[in-house]
Design goal:
With 124 residues, the chain is an all-beta fold. It is 0% helix and 48% strand. The strands form 2 sheets. Strands 2, 4, 5, 6, 9, 10 and 11 form a 7-stranded mixed beta sheet that branches. The protein has a 4-stranded antiparallel beta sheet with strand order 1-3-8-7, with no helix packed on it. A hairpin with a 6-residue loop joins strand 5 and strand 6.
């Protein structure tokens, strides 16, 4: 059974940083694309960042570009999201997702594996 478990969320002041982690078990994602998505209350789920299976290419939503960095450690079967210069509008539940294949996408429906999410709250 494939499981993705996020950690690292919490409460932080605007301008602060958090590092989210996503640990995978039940399947090795070392050659598969991974992504981060978020959903704020009353809003639809939105794409945050994605990384190809090889780790050679990364993609970001315009709203987080330059502030967030996605990375992966295939030896640990994990993916990370470093979030800097956080803003109140970054407040949401952040979920990691995995899909078969190297190609990364911004569309959530292309990902077949999901974690339960971790809450990130940024206070002003």
């Amino acid at each position: 059974q494939v499981q993705l478990v996020e950690s690292g969320g919490g409460l932080v002041q605007a301008g602060g940083s958090l590092r989210l982690s996503c640990a995978a078990s039940g399947r090795t994602f070392s050659r598969d694309a991974m992504g981060w998505f978020r959903q704020a209350p009353g809003k639809e789920r939105e794409f945050v960042a994605a990384i190809t299976g090889s780790g050679g290419d990364t993609y970001y939503a315009n709203s987080v570009k330059g502030r967030f960095t996605i990375s992966r450690d295939n030896a640990k079967n994990a993916v990370f999201l470093q979030m800097n210069s956080l803003k109140p509008e970054d407040t949401a539940v952040y979920s990691c997702a995995g899909r078969y294949g190297n190609a990364a996408y911004s569309q959530s429906w292309k990902y077949g594996f999901w974690g339960q999410g971790t809450q990130v709250t940024v206070s002003s």
